[in-house]
Hints:
Elements: H1 29-40, E1 42-49, H2 56-63, E2 81-91, E3 94-104, H3 117-135, E4 151-156, H4 165-174, E5 180-184, H5 192-208, H6 224-231, E6 236-237, E7 244-247, E8 250-257, E9 260-263, H7 272-282, H8 284-306, H9 321-418
Parallel strand pairs: 1-3, 1-4, 4-5, 5-6
Antiparallel strand pairs: 2-3, 7-8, 8-9
Amino acid sequence: MAAIDVEPTKIETAMRTLKLSGHVGFDSLPDQLVNKSVQNGFVFNILCIGETGLGKSTLMDSLFNTNFESTPSPHNLPTVKLKAHTYELQESNVRLKLTICDTVGYGDQVNKEDSFKAVVDYIDAQFEAYLQEELKIKRSLPSYHDSRLHVCLYFICPTGHGLKSIDLVCMKKLDTKVNIIPIIAKADTISKTELQKFKSKIMQELQANGVEIYQFPVDDESVSEVNGSMNAHIPFAVVGSTDFVKIGNKTVRARQYPWGTVQVENESHCDFVKLREMLIRTNMEDMREKTHARHYELYRRRRLAQMGFSDVDADNKPLSFQQTFEQKRSAHLQELQQKEDEMRQMFVQRVKEKEAELKEAEKELHAKFDKLRKDNTEEKRRLEELRKKIEDDTIEFNRRKQQTAQSHHTLTLGKSKKK
């Protein structure tokens, strides 16, 4: 039965705008969406990259105003390991499933060439897990725990001299996989003048090496002004603290020094408030959306291309998923048939070789049998001759014996007569 290819026809119709004569009610869709989202809760995953001791865990505690009870990391690990911990947070009636992934041992090795590899593999593994769930026949995406990383907070050591080579290499490897926000850790160790020069130096090096960091969106009018001004403050110089100090009538997060107090939430002391505002209160949903629409989509496109799927054929004509599947299936069946034919030919060849070996062995056995039979006949003949000779010798012996006995008897009789 011949297959019939039917090309889908694209029907273009002009869209008309109509006026309603009365209230319908679909203006409540935003409220329905909000209620549904609040009911389901939200997921947000943060990747913290930085050398051991830069205050990653402390900053997380400060950002979410809680204590995640993370354990200190040693400095003598042979390789980089990623540890992810998921927490359930609730503020008012909004639930947030927060996952914090820490790079344990990052930058502690003597050879730092492959420090980024574990991070890249982990991000790809989360994309792959989501893709496999998406490709299932029976999917459960609404209840699936999305572990894709939405933002990477890259902690920069406050040296004041620019980025290290490991920083540039790692961020370059990750800029197409995750939203990167560079952060100057422990910013209270640098003076304000040095800090501004350090920020400018970092941005110049990122641009010179083609590293694309996350830019806060300015296409939404409600946040375009604040996001535009905050983009100019990147990288954020932050300070974290788990200690509370009473200043005046207020108890605030701060770091106490002999020369004074650094308040975490004081914008004249550091950029912590700016980071929290941009990361959590303004652009969290944009980061989630960009992760799915940009980074995951890029990974998905590459993986499907590796699997042999494409939107166009060899002639650059549109190709449906079903057509691609049929082509892949046909090619797969042909490959199986070819392998089956090769295996059959190989089997026949081996059978022939085995038959030839058996015939040769049979021929050798026949030759051995003929030789043994010939040797046996020859031996029988020799034995028969020997038996006959022995019989003849026996007869001759008996005859001579008889003659000897007769001669002796005759001689004895002659002697008796003489007497």
